[in-house]
Amino acid sequence: MCTVWKRTLCYSVSMELLPCFLLLLIGATALAYGEPAYPGYGAEPTCGVKEESAMPAPERREEFDGGRILDISHYYREDMPAFESAEGTPGFLRLARSMRNGSDIANFSELRLTAHSGTHVDAPGHVFEHYYDAGFDVDTLDLAVLNGPAMLVDVPRDSNITADVLESLHIPKGVRRVLFRTLNTDRKLMWKKEFDSSYVGFMEDGAQWLIDNTDIRLVGIDYLSVGAYEECIPAHLVFLGKREVIIVEALNLEHVAAGVYTLHCLPLRLRGAEGSPARCILIK
Ligand SMILES: *[C@@H]1O[C@H](CO)[C@@H](O)[C@H](O)[C@H]1NC(C)=O
Ligand SMILES: *[C@@H]1O[C@H](CO)[C@@H](O)[C@H](O)[C@H]1NC(C)=O
Ligand SMILES: *[C@@H]1O[C@H](CO)[C@@H](O)[C@H](O)[C@H]1NC(C)=O
Asked: Which first-to-last residue range defines the signal peptide (predicted)?
């Protein structure tokens, strides 16, 4: 089967829970292997068969193009925390059909996730029945809000995000997108499988202050909910009540300096869904 170094490759790939064979299907081959873009589909199985070919190890990156593009999404993994759960995200990816079973010509994996798994956006239907019924789903979110100049700010680490805290940040008028980095990042909460309700988020008065005193239309945060646990729903109600704000949650902000960037955040077009995983990146 695998030579020693190839075993290492297969092992590290499976540890990432993104089977190497899936890469062939989702077109990420160029990303994972560099040039050439599409190495011998089928003819050169990714793991274990071909002897001593120069198969490079898949590259895992948080930055691209020499640091110009910064990935601020969390990669999906089984021990990624989920709201109010101790279980993480088990079994989110399953190889449903495989050549190993004999009958199929390719591998097909299945996803099983909540719409609020990992880095994701909330649509107004998340907390409002009337918006849910009226169809204010993630497919209705404005791409002009989800993409554009954004400011990454550090929140004082000794408090949840209250009106006073927001006022102290002096975010200039005209800023439309802000990513709030908090104690959650220092505590590496997104790297702990068990949900931790002591995370930092907006208090209701903080959310209201933001609506009343700023031009912010996109709020990003570094754990699973934009609202602090004890005021989770009230904070969401304020942000989504008039459909004024797009909420982006569970961003990975640990390797990025505070400052101004161009944000690109692209949720899936899940019509009917009140949330969606999103790929979010910053461009310098
Ligand atoms: C093989 O087929 C069985 C029965 O259809 C299925 O349950 C299993 O998940 C398949 N395994 C793989 C790796 O495709
Ligand atoms: C599909 O996955 C199996 C492992 O179950 C692997 O042996 C096989 O080479 C894969 N087939 C393709 C076409 O990638
Ligand atoms: C933020 O609020 C949560 C409860 O929602 C609390 O457990 C936590 O200690 C607070 N964090 C800070 C830094 O005050």
From this structure: 1-34
